């Protein structure tokens, strides 16, 4: 057996991550915080777009949040819009280009706090668009304030003693609400806290693109993402903290799949 010298740190990385970079990512690095879950979620989305051969046939509409900086890193036709309004912009684009996969990239603050009317009305109309909500339970970009999705007891920058139901109200569980609406054909919640969840989320993202393209109405794909900076926890503790807080309230899995009967996915 070959003895490994452990007296020094490794002189080369264990994995050459650059070799696995999706083609739709322009660079291997990003500007988000260490331990942030958003780059993982975005990477998964880009990989699925490539797999589904939508590379030349998709448009992304970004809301406002830390994920917004990826507009410079994705080789995808993209546009920014006013905070929370992405589903409305997506509606216009889809109606002009029905054959194109139109997707929004939003956060919990963007979608559930600032843009609640837009996502609800877009679901009510049954628009064939894919809406991603990266849910970290805070307005990460502005410093970690409470959003409509922060859970009871969650410590945020403006709920230092924890969110209190009586004073701050209860969280809005948007996916559960949309799953009751006829115009929303696919509603699922994934997470990026460990390898198994990343794998399961990737499969759900596939359907989140496929169902609207097959005319089943709006897809809401929520993904729980770590925000150690906004939660005031060390980067390495983000995943565990997330599942002890958001993970207790926001159950993972598919909430609705109107196209399940016509599913020919062999990898499920
Ligand atoms: C109308 C409006 N209100 C507030 C802001 C400030 N703002 C920019 S990003 C952001 C936080 C977004 O939070 P979220 O969508 O959850 O994304 P995260 O940063 O957590 O990924 C806020 C409040 C803004 N740009 N426009
Ligand atoms: S503040 Fe939170 S969401 Fe924003 S980049 Fe940092 S860890 Fe990610
Ligand atoms: Mg957020």
From TrEMBL:
Keywords: Oxidoreductase
One example of a Gene Ontology biological process annotation: cellular respiration
UniProt domain Thiamine pyrophosphate enzyme TPP-binding: residue ranges: 77-221
One Gene Ontology molecular-function label: oxidoreductase activity, acting on the aldehyde or oxo group of donors, iron-sulfur protein as acceptor
Pfam families tied to this protein: TPP_enzyme_C
InterPro entries: 2-oxoacid:Fd_oxidoreductase, THDP-binding, TPP_enzyme_TPP-bd
Protein name: Thiamine pyrophosphate enzyme TPP-binding domain-containing protein
């Amino acid at each position: 057996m070959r003895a490994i010298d452990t007296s020094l740190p490794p002189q080369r990385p264990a994995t050459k991550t650059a070799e696995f970079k999706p083609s739709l990512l322009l660079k291997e690095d990003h500007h988000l915080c260490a331990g942030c879950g958003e780059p993982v979620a975005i990477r998964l989305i880009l990989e699925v777009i490539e797999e589904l051969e939508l590379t030349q046939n998709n448009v992304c509409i970004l809301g406002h949040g830390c994920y917004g900086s990826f507009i410079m890193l994705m080789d995808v036709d993209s546009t920014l819009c006013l905070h929370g309004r992405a589903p409305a912009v997506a509606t216009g684009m889809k109606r002009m280009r029905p054959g194109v996969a139109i997707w929004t990239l939003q956060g919990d603050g963007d979608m559930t706090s600032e843009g609640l009317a837009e996502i609800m009305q877009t679901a009510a109309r049954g628009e064939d668009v894919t809406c991603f909500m990266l849910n970290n339970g805070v307005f990460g970009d502005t410093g970690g304030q409470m959003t409509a999705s922060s859970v009871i007891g969650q410590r945020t920058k403006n709920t230092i003693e924890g969110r209190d139901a009586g004073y701050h109200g209860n969280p809005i569980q948007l996916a559960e609400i949309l799953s009751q609406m006829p115009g929303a054909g696919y509603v699922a919640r994934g997470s990026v806290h460990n390898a198994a969840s990343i794998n399961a989320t990737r499969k759900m993202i596939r359907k989140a693109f496929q169902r609207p393209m097959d005319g089943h109405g709006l897809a809401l794909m929520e993904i729980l993402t770590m925000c150690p900076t906004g939660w005031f926890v060390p980067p390495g503790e983000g995943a565990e903290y997330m599942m002890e807080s958001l993970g207790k309230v926001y159950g993972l899995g598919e909430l609705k799949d109107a196209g399940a009967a016509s599913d020919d996915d062999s990898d499920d």
